[in-house]
Write the C-alpha cells for this entry.
Amino acid sequence: MGKVTAQTRLANQLLLEAIKNPKNLPVLSLADWELLIRMGRRTRLLGRLEADLSRIGLLAEIPSRAADHLRAARNVIDHRNTLVKWEINRILWALNGTEAPIILLKGAAYVQANLPPAHGRIFADVDLLRPEERIEEIEEKLSLRGWLKMQIDPYDDRYYRVWMHEIPPLRHRERGTEIDIHHRILPRTSRLNSDPALLFEAARPLEDSRLHVLAPADMVLHALVHLFLECDPREGLRLRDLLDVHLLFQHYGQEQSFWDGLTPRAYKLGLERPLFYGLRFALRFFDTPIPQTVRSEIKNAGPRWPMLWLMDHLVALAILPGHPDYPYPWATLARHLLYLRAHWLKMPPLMLARHLLYKAYLRSRGVRGKVDLAKLDLRQQ
Amino acid sequence: MRVGDLALRKFKSRLATEGLQVQFGPFVIRMRSDLASFASLAHQLYHHYPLASATAMTDFHVQITRPRWLRRWLRPQSLFTLDGQSPFAPYAVEHALPALEWGINWCIATRAHHLLMLHAAVVERDGQAIIFPAWPGHGKSTLCAALIHSGWRLLSDEFGLVHPEDGKLLPIPRLIPLKNESIDVIRRFRPGAIIGPSFFNTRKGTVAHVMPSEESIRRGHEPAEPRWLIFPRWAAEASLTLKPIPKSEAFLMVATNAFNYEVLDNTAFHLVTDMVQACDCYSFRYSNLDEAVTALNALTSSGHG
C-alpha cells in the first residue's frame, strides 16, 4: 500500500499543480505529460489545460505529442459549445411567444453568458429552470417542435415527477440532444429546503432578454449543490465541477459586493453547508482567493469536528483521480460513501432504501448496458 | 526494435507485467495482457510493428485481461480496458485479439480529434494515395487487402487520417479485419498472404486479420498526398465499371462519412475541399479482384505517366 499511496499523492499533485500554475507546464518531462494527459482525460480537464496554455501563449512550448491531445480536446469542446448555442437558439424558436423568461442553468448558462467555466469544458445537455406551474406549457411547445419524452420505465417516471427537482429529460428526435427542465435546484424530498421562488426573483437577463441566468451568488450555490449532491459512485465527486466554482469565485469575486452578499444569500436559501464545503475545498485544492471576512462568516456553517475531519478525507479521496495504474481502494470506498451521503440528503431513509434496492435490482439484471465494441458505430461517438 | 525481435517468452512476460509500447502509425499504444493465448497470437500478428523507445510518450494505455471475480473461472472472458476503466462488454476469451483491435479503434475514433478522421481505406504508390471511402458491405477491406498484395503500400484500412496542417494522409497500418467470405477470397487471390486465425461467431460474424507488409509498417511515418478518391462497390457478377463522378458528389460522400467532420468544423470543410480538388474522383464497381487491381493499376499509371 505504501507505493500506491505515494503514487496517488504524486499523481494528484501533478494534476492540481498543472491547473493552478499552467505557466510551469513547459518544464514537465514527457513521462509527467503522459500521466497528466491520462488524468486529464479521466477528469475531463484536458480542455481546461489547453485553454489556460493558449491564454498565456505557451501552447507551442509543450511537447507536440501532448499538445495533440490538448488540441483534440479543444476541438471537441468548440464543437459542443456550438451545439449548445444552436440548441438554445432552437429552444427559443420553439418557445416563441412564451411569457416569463427561461433561466439557463449550468453549462448552457456559462456558454451563453460567456463565463470562464465555458472555456475548456464540455457540456452535454441544456438545463433550464422554470416555475413549476409553467412547465407544462413549455413541455407541450417543445414536444410540438420535435423534443420527445424519453422512453423511461414507470418507476423512473414517477421518481422524476413525484420526488425530483426536474421532469424526465426531453430528447430531440433528430439531433438527439437532451433538455433537462428543472423547477427547483434540489429534489422535493431533500433535507436541504430551498425556496425556488427566490431564485426566479434574482435571476438576471442576458443580452437576449428572453434568456436569464441565475444571479452570481445563486449560480455559485447551484454549482455547489450539483457538485455535492449529484455524485456518481464510479466517478466520485467531479473535480471539474469544483473548478467551475473556483472560476466563478475568481470571476465574480472581482466585485466586493459579490463577497458581501454571498454568505447571507446562502443562509437565506438554506445552502450554507454546501457553501461552507465549496469555499473550503476550492481554497484547499485551487488556492482560491477568498476574503478573510467570508471565511469567518461561514465558519459556523460547517459540521462538528469528527464529521468535518471525515469529510475532509472523503472529499479529497473522491474528488482527486489518483494514478490510473495504481487504483486506490480507499478512494473507491470514499466515492461510494459520498454517493450514499448525496442520496441521504436527497430523500428520507425509507424512500432511500427502496430506491437503492430498486437500482441494485436493475443492475443485477444487467439493465445498464455495456458498450459492445464490435457493434459500435464509431462515427457517433 | 520490433515486436518480432523479442523472444516469445520475453514478449509474454513484458505483456503480463509492465506492458509493451507498440507504435501504430502516429500513436503509441501500451498494451498489457495476462492471457497466454492472446500473447502468442499477438507475437505473430504484430511481428513487424516497431516498439516505441522507452522515453516515447504513450497515447493510450490499454489492457485485454480476464475480468475479475467469478468470471475468471466460469466461461472465461476477455475484457478491454483503457486506463483501467471499462465501459465495454466482455468477449469470449478466444476473441481477445479482435476485441483489442476494436478497442484500439475506439480509442482513436473517440480521442484523436486533432486529426480529421475519414472512414476510409488508403493505399499509396510513388507518394500518391488512393482513398477508398468505406460503406459497410461495399468491400473496401477486401479491395485494400488485394492492393497491398499487388505492390501498393497500406496507409490505413479504417481511418483515413488527414493532417490538418498540410492535408497529407498519415499512415496507420493496422491489421486488416476481413469478414466472412472475404477471408477465402483473399486466400485464393494471394495464397502467400499472411492471415491470422479465423475467429468464429464474433458479433461481426467470422473475422480474420491480414498482416500488412513489413514495408508498410516500416514506413508507417511517411505521409502521402491524396490523388484519387475512388468509391468502390463490390457486386456479384457485376461487370467492371470505373466512372468519373462530379467533385461536389465526392465532397458530400467524404464529408458525411467521416468520423469527425462536424467536430473539426471549418477546418474539416477546407481539408475535404482541398482533397476533392486535388483528387480525380471515380465510382468503381467490380466483382473480380484481379480485374479490379488491373483496372486501378492502369488508371493510376496513366494518371501521372
